[in-house]
């Protein structure tokens, strides 16, 4: 067992999901936490997504296809976690697909009403049931819009560079509101100004201490 998992008595079967807007640092956090806790990872596979590029070029045409694709992928990951019995760090939660992305495109008219109704009814039938366990903890990464935008630029995915700033602004605002109402599982909020996973070797231990406090209900 990992030294830090042992030190902070993090249960072996824990499922921890990392939420936050595009570029905030979820994948990086997923990698570092999984390494330190010796947990499995569950990543969004951006390179293999057959709709994502097309979606960024034409939201109206591809919104529904993309949401169905993400729903299927996340459900398959959920099945894998169930079969392996936990011990996972998950890069993005399924709640963000509906609470942020699908809703944003429906509100803006880039997903039509019929498609949105079909998508939400499928989502509710699949996810909002007792058969779909919630994670033990959701870590919410937050940061100033400017810092998030510079990370999107630094990462350099073409489709995201060409997307107008207003898209990321709106998403950032929606995330701020969404997390205030989120109550499906315990939440640990981390501001990206308060840790540095790239240059500070001690940062991950401080984060794991906070995770332990939340999981053991100490705060
Ligand atoms: N703690 C950090 N400090 C500095 N840069 C970071 C940090 N975490 C992530 N980054 C950088 O920000 C960019 C986006 O990070 P990523 O983990 O891919 O975000 P997300 O998965 O939320 O979209 C990447 O270029 C990554 O190297
Ligand atoms: N449900 C989604 N709808 C639209 N776009 C989505 C959804 N989930 C993820 N995305 C996009 C956003 C980014 O361009 C990539 C990967 O997300 P990231 O936050 O960088 O991990 O997919």
Q: Care to describe what's here?
A:
By secondary structure, the protein is of the alpha/beta class. The protein has one domain: P-loop containing nucleotide triphosphate hydrolases (Rossmann fold). The protein is built from ten helices and five strands, in the order H-E-H-E-H-H-E-H-H-E-H-H-H-E-H. The relative contact order is 0.19. It binds adenosine-5'-diphosphate (ADP) and the ligand Nc1ncnc2c1ncn2[C@H]1C[C@H](O)[C@@H](COP(=O)(O)O)O1. The ligand Nc1ncnc2c1ncn2[C@H]1C[C@H](O)[C@@H](COP(=O)(O)O)O1 binds at residues 22-23, 26-27, 44, 46, 52, 66-67, 70, 92, 97, 101, 160.
Report strand order across the widest sheet. 2-3-1-4-5
* CATH topology description: Rossmann fold
The level of helicity is 55-70%
Indicate the multimeric state.
single chain
H-E string: HEHEHHEHHEHHHEH
The number of distinct helices, counting runs of at least 4 residues, comes to 10
Corresponding CATH superfamily = P-loop containing nucleotide triphosphate hydrolases
Number of domains: 1
Overall 3D form:
globular
- What structural class do helix, strand and pairing data support? alpha/beta
Q: Total number of β-strand segments?
A: 5
Bound molecules: adenosine-5'-diphosphate, ligand LDVFA3IR
What's the mean pLDDT score?
A: 95
Q: State the distance separating the first and last CA atoms.
A: 25 Å
CATH C-level class is: Alpha Beta
CATH architecture annotation: 3-Layer(aba) Sandwich
- Main sheet overview: 5 strands, parallel
Radius of gyration: 17 Å
């Amino acid at each position: 067992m990992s030294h830090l998992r042992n030190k902070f008595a993090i249960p072996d079967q824990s499922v921890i999901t990392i939420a936050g807007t595009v570029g905030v640092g979820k994948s990086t956090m997923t990698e570092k936490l999984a390494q330190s806790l010796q947990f499995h990872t569950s990543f969004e596979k951006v390179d293999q997504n057959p709709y994502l590029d097309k979606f960024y070029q034409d939201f109206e045409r591809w919104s529904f296809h993309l949401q169905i694709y993400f729903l299927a992928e996340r459900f398959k990951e959920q099945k894998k976690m169930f079969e392996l019995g936990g011990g996972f760090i998950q890069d993005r939660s399924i709640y963000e697909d509906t609470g942020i992305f699908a809703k944003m495109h429906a509100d803006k008219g880039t997903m039509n009403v019929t498609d949105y109704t079909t998508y939400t009814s499928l989502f509710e039938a699949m996810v909002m049931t007792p058969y779909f366990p919630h994670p033990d903890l959701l870590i919410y990464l937050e940061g100033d819009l400017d810092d998030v935008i510079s990370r999107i630029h630094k990462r350099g995915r073409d489709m995201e560079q060409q997307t107008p700033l207003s898209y990321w602004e709106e998403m950032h605002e929606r995330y701020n509101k969404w997390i205030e109402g989120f109550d499906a599982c315990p939440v640990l909020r981390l501001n990206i100004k308060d840790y540095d996973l790239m240059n500070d070797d001690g940062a991950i231990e401080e984060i794991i201490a906070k995770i332990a406090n939340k999981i053991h209900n100490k705060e």
